[in-house]
Amino acid sequence: MTLIMHESYGYTWSGRRAFLVNRFLRLYPQYWAAALVSVLLLVWQGQGSLTRFHPSIYTPSSVSEFFSNVTMVFPSWQPHTVNPRLVPPAWALTIELFFYAIICMGVSRTRKRTTLWVVLSLVYVFWSFVAGLNPESRYFPVAAASLPFSVGSFVYFASKSKRLRRMCSQLKIASWQLFIGMLANCLGWMILSVLKIGLLVELGVYINIIICGLLVLRISTGDEILQISRRVDKAIGDFSFPVYLLHYQCGFVASFLLFGDPFHEFSVRGFASFTLALCVVIALSSVFIFAIDFPLQRIRKRVRRKSTRMADDELG
């Protein structure tokens, strides 16, 4: 987002407005479609079945609940505690909206601001340990997401520094090795979390932030993980958002169709359900991409081009 603000929109009023319009067009139409899928499932199978599969999926019954589910704004220090959520992972979108807004306002406009942002984010993490806060306080709240967002912004400025780029290019670790390290880190700590070894599991999150920061910085020097075309890369990326929005609904459909029982578990039938759910989510995501996202991509391009012309006029 910092790169986009600096290189695609800029910090003029027209640039900021275009950024927010395009974020809206990117997020909300597909989100509303995913929420509609949940509504159709509630009509089809009833609230009890959906709630058994995920406790957040049930019908909003108050004005505030409808408002949250329409706007993706779940107003809480820890948005994941606000229910119902027709799209269960939408709590994280509340956090994303917050950081999109402050990035648009200029929190990462300069390297000094961004460095201060990283420092304050680290202070929150250390304070949460000193204060004895539970692990959820370092993952779910808005403040907990500040660290990865600020590190991402810092990487943008690091990629523009000739000295840091030179140091990065001298690293003996290639992008593909960092990528494998990231996967190994995630898998290893996932296994350890099953073994319930306590707070040490949290180390995996911070190791992941370091690896990913180095990986993006390494890629910025031209050391790509795989030599694939931009078209293929974009096609893969187009699936990320609809898959994120739809994976619970598709998991429900798969388990119900195969076994007549909404469940998710680590077992043979769980693997069978996962396999079908993967096919369903790819198919439904394809519909979202071609019916919703592709037409809106053309509109977003026009918005971005118009903002560039207006910014030139404002600066001129």
- Rg from C-alpha positions? 21 Å
Overall average pLDDT: 90
Major sheet description: none
State the end-to-end distance.
Answer: 25 Å
Shape category:
globular
Would you list the SSEs in sequence order as H and E? HHHHHHHHHHHHH
User: How much beta, percentage-wise?
Assistant: under 5%
SS content category: mainly alpha
Compose a concise summary of this entry:
The chain is mostly helical and 316 residues long.
Give structural attributes.
mainly alpha, 13 helices
Give a verbal description of the structure:
- By secondary structure, the chain is mainly α.
- It has a domain at 1-106 and 224-316.
- Helix content is 73%, strand content 0%.
- It has helices at 2-9, 13-45, 47-53, 63-71, 90-105, 111-130, 146-160, 162-169, 175-194, 203-220, 230-238, 240-259, 268-315.
- The protein is globular and about 60 Å long.
Layout of SSEs?
Layout: H1 2-9, H2 13-45, H3 47-53, H4 63-71, H5 90-105, H6 111-130, H7 146-160, H8 162-169, H9 175-194, H10 203-220, H11 230-238, H12 240-259, H13 268-315
Helix pairs in contact: 1-2, 2-3, 2-5, 2-12, 2-13, 6-7, 7-10, 9-10, 12-13
